From TrEMBL:
Gene3D superfamilies: 5' to 3' exonuclease, C-terminal subdomain, P-loop containing nucleotide triphosphate hydrolases. The keyword ATP-binding applies. This is DNA-binding protein MutS2. PANTHER family: DNA MISMATCH REPAIR PROTEIN MUTS FAMILY MEMBER, DNA-BINDING PROTEIN MUTS2. ATP binds at residues 489-496. InterPro entries: DNA-bd_MutS2_arc (IPR012401), DNA_mismatch_repair_MutS_C (IPR000432), MutS (IPR045076), P-loop_NTPase (IPR027417), RuvA_2-like (IPR010994).
Length: 693
């Protein structure tokens, strides 16, 4: 893929993206998290790039969200999805869902969403997801106790390239190998010519080493698993909790078993022998010190208790020979000394849990020659330390090689496993959104003939996800529009909320996602123009630019959905009605679908040069001073306004109280006022009501 062909990706960004492991995969999968690891690419930018790549794939011209309010609606519904993700990955990934006018893109996401809404977002799965993150690249591994050796300069360069974790040394001959073996625990000779050479130390001849780096440096594959151990373990937990099949290339049990043997620092855990050797190396000095104390305490106690009888001539000869107390010890306390040394050796062997070969070396730390105080033999101690350390490294190396071999085939599986868990989070966010807002998949009318393309939209039992009320408190709304429509209605009847509902349904549907309604059917739109209510009258300049905007819009075509809320507030009512009528005429002529909310519906209808439909959100009555509203617009019906409703109520109440009394009183007053009729209260209401008709 030519990265620069993606909208919004220039030369510099393309260079940054090409530094990723697999930029094409990340772009194709909408893996915003991976894209954001490219140098200098922020998360927001990564999401825009991913959307650009999708648009490129689907030949999508973009620009579906044509106004600020349309973009706001998109951000709001998107945030409802984001709030329902657990991982940062999923939160970024949902940013790649955007409303598209392209059927192929809509259907692509629909396929994903249909599957997603069947998922069960259980607490256990959501909890397990908290530990899942995209896999991290382990830091550079350096292994100091092993080296590669060769006599050949070319092989030297190849080795440095293939196995950068180890030092590579040039040697002349076997003598050189022997010298290296003194400084390294293991030397791996790369030249065939060394086969059969015997040198002291751990020297292996492996001409094939560069082809099998994982055998030479098991730390390399292990560092990947060690760095990602917790993430992979969490992904395993997600699969178990959600009861979903692992990817075909992943053996969960083997992976879990391997990970349980791996420490976070890349060493192998849970091996008794390695633990024993590690403790023995660490505790060697302290244990030798304690063994010395054991011997000396023993000997001191024995000497204190002992009555040493020595003949004068013997003493004299000892003194004349300049012999010290050691000779006396060996002569007189040989048994006690032997017992003290035996106790020291036993302590050391026990404390370090040494095997018989190691015990043999350990015994030499305390010699048989009597001395007081008893002291360690430093050379023997160093020898034991070397032996134990070499045994420990051999053991650790073997364990690492075994574990690396066990895990070697699991790497791709682990990658897929984590990816699946992260993708499941995206699906669960969609499932939870759909569940909590009572959503269904919308039905698109794709047809190309004019009857179909004029289908507009139809919503049954829709509930705006932008209302701040619990779902149960929202009245479901039905609304069906094709062509250009005026929507009248009582104050606070829910007109704005209805436009928000229509916009949310249309935006979500074009994102390929479920919509908040029991059923929704709509045509494919090219763009959404939603104009929110303007606050207050605009000054001349602002008014002019608004009219220009609408002039632009009126050029807009058959694929546009136009939602406008109370445009009349931009200027005085008479002029507003004329302007709105003009815009409606143009939109109708161009075949757009439109809903204009207005309190001037009647006036606009009069002025429009075509038969514009007027729907109405009606108050069905007043209950305790509060309007009771039927939130679903009645088709082809101009809604009565709130004042009309109140006058009607007053007229009815006054009428019921005394229509008869009123006419009697009127006749009486006519008489007393010399024929001039005064207007009673019921008459006032009745006449007022007539003016509304
Ligand atoms: N479908 C509904 N179910 C429950 N409550 C609703 C519904 N629609 C709207 N409301 C409530 O009614 C209030 C007024 O709604 P909205 O602002 O949409 O009315 P409006 O007709 O646009 O008012 P105005 O004529 O003053 O502009 C909202 O704040 C909301 O609480």
């Amino acid at each position: 893929m030519d990265l620069e062909s993606i909208p919004g990706v220039g030369e510099k960004t393309a260079r940054a993206l090409s530094e990723l492991d697999d930029p094409e995969r990340a772009l194709r999968a909408g893996d915003v998290a991976a894209l954001a690891t490219a140098p200098g690419i922020s998360q927001g930018r990564a999401a825009r790039i991913a959307r650009g790549a999708i648009r490129h794939d689907h030949d999508d011209p973009g620009g579906f969200l044509a106004t600020d309010r349309a973009r706001e609606i998109y951000r709001e519904v998107l945030s409802l999805l984001t709030e329902r993700t657990v991982t940062d990955y999923a939160a970024q990934r949902v940013e790649t869902f955007y409303p598209s006018s392209q059927r192929s893109r809509i259907e692509q996401v629909q396929t994903f969403a249909r599957e997603a809404i069947t998922r069960e977002p259980s607490r256990a799965v959501l909890d397990a997801l908290t530990g899942v993150e995209p896999l991290a690249t382990p830091g550079d591994v350096r292994v100091r106790e092993r080296c590669l050796a060769t006599t050949d300069a070319e092989r030297y360069a190849a080795a440095r390239e293939a196995i950068p974790e180890l030092s590579v040394e040039i040697v002349e001959d076997a003598q050189g190998l022997a010298e290296l073996a003194r400084g390294y625990s293991t030397v791996i000779a790369l030249d065939e010519s060394f086969t059969g050479v015997t040198v002291e130390g751990d020297v292996q001849v492996r001409p094939d080493a560069l082809d099998h780096p994982a055998e030479i440096v098991p730390e390399r594959p292990l560092s990947f698993f060690a760095r990602n151990r917790d993430r992979i373990t969490a992904a395993i937990a997600v699969h178990r909790a959600a009861d979903i099949d692992p990817p075909s290339d992943c053996d969960i049990d083997a992976l879990e078993d391997g990970l349980s043997r791996l420490e976070a620092d890349g060493t192998v855990a849970g091996d008794d022998e390695l633990d024993r050797l590690t403790v023995a190396v660490d505790d060697l000095d302290a244990a030798v010190g304690t063994a010395e104390t054991v011997a000396n305490d023993h000997l001191r106690e024995a000497i204190r208790k002992e009555d040493v009888t020595i003949e004068g001539s013997d003493l004299l000869s000892l003194v004349e020979r300049g012999a010290g107390v050691d000779s006396l010890l060996s002569r007189e306390l040989a048994d006690e000394f032997a017992a003290a040394v035996a106790a020291a050796r036993e302590h050391l062997i026990d404390a370090l849990d040494l095997d018989s070969g190691e015990a043999e070396v350990a015994r030499r730390i305390f010699g048989d020659e009597p001395t007081f105080p008893v002291e360690r033999d430093e050379d023997a101690t160093a020898r034991l330390r070397e032996d134990l350390t070499a045994a420990k490294e051999r053991r650790a190396g073997k364990l690492k090689r075994d574990l690396a071999a066990d895990l070697a085939d699991q790497r791709a599986g682990a990658r897929d496993l984590v990816r699946n868990a992260l993708e499941l989070d995206v699906e669960l966010a969609v499932a939870r959104f759909a569940d909590e807002f009572g959503c269904t998949m919308p039905e698109f009318v794709w047809g190309a003939d004019s009857a179909d393309t004029r289908a507009g939209f139809g919503i049954e039992a829709g509930r705006s996800p932008l209302l701040d009320e619990p779902l149960a408190d929202i009245d479901p709304v039905d609304y069906d529009v094709s062509g250009v429509t005026l929507l009248s209605g009582v104050n606070s009847g829910g007109k704005t909320s209805l436009l928000d509902l229509v916009a949310s349904v249309v935006v979500l549907a074009h994102m390929g996602l479920p919509v908040p309604a029991e059923h929704a059917r709509l045509r494919r739109f090219d763009d959404l123009h939603y104009h929110a209510k303007t606050q207050g009258t605009l000054d001349a300049g602002a008014f002019e630019s608004t009219v220009r905007e609408f002039a632009d819009l009126a050029q807009g075509g058959e694929g546009s959905l136009v939602l406008v809320d109370e445009l009349e507030s931009i200027t005085e009512p008479g002029a507003s009605a004329k302007i709105i009528a003009g815009i409606l005429e143009a939109l109708a002529a161009n075949g757009a679908t439109a809903v204009f909310v207005s309190h001037l519906a009647d006036e606009i209808r009069e002025m429009a040069g075509f038969d514009v439909t007027v729907d109405g959100i009606e108050a069905v009555g007043l209950v305790d001073g509060e309007l009771e509203v039927n939130r679903s617009p009645v088709k082809d019906h101009l809604a009565r306004s709130t004042p009309e409703l109140i006058v009607e109520k007053l007229a009815t109440e006054a009428g019921a109280a005394g229509a008869d009394a009123a006419s009697a009183t009127a006749a009486e007053s006519a008489r007393t006022n010399g024929g001039t009729e005064t207007v009673s209260e019921p008459q006032f209401y009745t006449r007022l009501l007539e003016k509304f008709e």
